[in-house]
Amino acid sequence: MQDLFSQHVPTPLADRVRPRTLDEFVGQREIVGEGRILRRIIEKGRLESSLIFWGPPGCGKTTLAHLIAGSVEANFVFFSAVTSGIADVKRIAHQADSLLKMHERRTILFVDEIHRFNKAQQDAFLPYIEKGTIVLIGATTENPSFEVIAPLLSRCRVFILKPLTEEQIVTILERTIADTERGFGAQAIVISGDDLAYLAHLSHGDARAALNALEMAVGSLDETDGERVLTRELVEEALQKKSILYDKQGEEHFNLISALHKSLRGGDPDASLYWLARMLEAGEDPLYIARRLVRFASEDVGNADPQALQVAINAMEAFHFVGIPEGKLALAQAAVYLAVAPKSNALYTAYDDAARDVHEHGPLPVPLWLRNAPTDFMKRIGYGKGYRYPHEEPGGIVDQEYFPEKLAGTTYYHPIERGFEREIIKRIEYWRRVREEESRSKD
After folding, report:
1. Which of 79, 113, 226, 299 gives a 20 to 30 Å CA spacing to 409?
2. 262 and 336 within one domain
3. Which of 167, 248, 250 is nearest to 210 (CA)?
4. Cis ω on the peptide bond leading into residue 127 (within 30° of 0)?
5. Residue 134 in 3-state DSSP?
6. What angle do CA 270, 310, 351 make, to 5 degrees?
7. Residues 313 and 373 in one domain
8. Which residues constitute the domain of residue 218?
9. What is the pLDDT of residues 155-204, one digit of tens each?
């Protein structure tokens, strides 16, 4: 019986057609264009400093590492953070140290998905980088500021890679279809320019996803001596629905919630719906979004529309009640309401000012006349003495100080001439006039 494990396993297309020179590399002109530092490093074949490549999937991070590996005079080790640990780091570092001492040859260690290493695992690299035993190249899809420890980050030059454009992905696909050595040039594959552009569009800047879909689509075609036609339907079936790039703990999470918050604040219901949908369709916790909407109702709408808070809370309760997918509409309804509501941050700034005084002045004593006096002893020492009960006074308002003495007369809340706060301004002015009249009548 034939040994299944001895059979030849074909190399995936995305790996077969990986660029072997900078001239074949597509995209990222900002870092590998003529005269750029990374291009000079690759062309000179010398890498002295550790690097981190940060960019979305399929933008060329691993390919750049391969190009460096093929150009520098060093021992190059590829290493995956998914399958390796501290013991592997120490083993590679020990081998690198021996190689450096015996043959004066440095080791470059490429760590794919370095963000998957925890703090202790990342710490393990530091002494070897510090001694020069290894030069590190890390690749990550997540913001290094969040996912790479500061001591390691400070020892690395970060290169930011962008998603490939649709035109760049079309170029990669066209080369692959025409390549007789590594691609499909010998198979007479035919696909229209529109369908090729459609495949690039559905790939969302990920060349690997586009190549994988192309490979699957070609593999599904019947063997024939003539042309083999790839249709749009076959392309869609091969690629299926691409999961939306989203990192619930890292930068993209904060970028999207920031975009939603700012769109709401700017009064744009359509942009608000877009960012809301981006988060929900990517799998964000809807209750996290609901909590942010509740926060926004108080922070940015406030008393300009007191109903906004109730709308946000109702949306959260409605989502609890109906769940997914119907509950998404409740959040959308609240988002649109909040976007078009009049805005005021007067409450937000008022609370901040009050909190600042609390921290600055400490626990100022409550004035005696504001203290409750449940016992005779408390009454005898002055608790509650001089307090005037507004309901027993004409108009229900009295001229009485409610602040600690040190803060007497302070004003925190400054409503604006917008929405319901116009009415609040009128009410505050009314209370002020009544107090002044009441104060004058006592004089």
Report:
1. 299
2. yes
3. 167
4. no
5. strand
6. 95
7. no
8. 166-239
9. 888 999 988 988 999 999 999 988 888 888 888 888 888 888 888 888 88
Distances (CA, A) of 227 to 149, 150, 188, 189, 224: 53, 55, 5, 6, 7
pLDDT over threshold 80, residue 229: yes
In a domain, 19, yes or no: no
Residue 438 lies in a domain: yes
| Residue 18: inside a domain | no
Based on the fold, state whether residues 50 and 142 are members of the same structural domain. yes
With tokens 């400490």, the residue in question is: 362
What CA–CA distances, in Å, run from 92 to 78, 97, 103, 111?
10, 9, 16, 12
Please tell me the distance from the alpha carbon of residue 91 to that of residue 98, in angstroms, as a whole number: 11
Distances (CA, A) of 412 to 14, 295, 348, 349, 417: 62, 20, 10, 8, 16
pLDDT, one tens digit per residue, over 244-266 is 555 555 567 788 889 999 999 99
pLDDT bucket at 379, cuts 50 / 70 / 90: confident
Tell me: do 177 and 221 sit in the same domain. yes
329 and 392 together in one domain: no
pLDDT per residue as tens digits for the range 74-105: 778 887 777 767 777 778 877 877 777 777 67
Q: Give yes or no for residue 113 having a pLDDT over 80.
A: yes
Is the pTM for the entire model greater than 0.70?
Answer: no
> Coil, strand, or helix at residue 438?
helix
Residues 221 and 257 reside in one and the same domain: no
Residue at which a domain ends, from 239, 260, 287: 239
Per DSSP (E only), the strands in 302-363 are none
Quote the CA–CA distance of 139 and 31 in Å, as a whole number. Answer: 15
Is 23 within a domain? no
Average pLDDT, the chain: 85
How far, in Å, are 29, 35, 89, 351 from residue 144 at the CA level? 21, 26, 20, 35
**pLDDT for 443:** 60
Same domain, 151 and 179: no
**Measuring CA to CA, how many Å separate 165 from each of 25, 147, 172, 178, 205?**
14, 26, 11, 20, 6
Q: φ and ψ at 281, to 5 degrees?
A: -70, -20
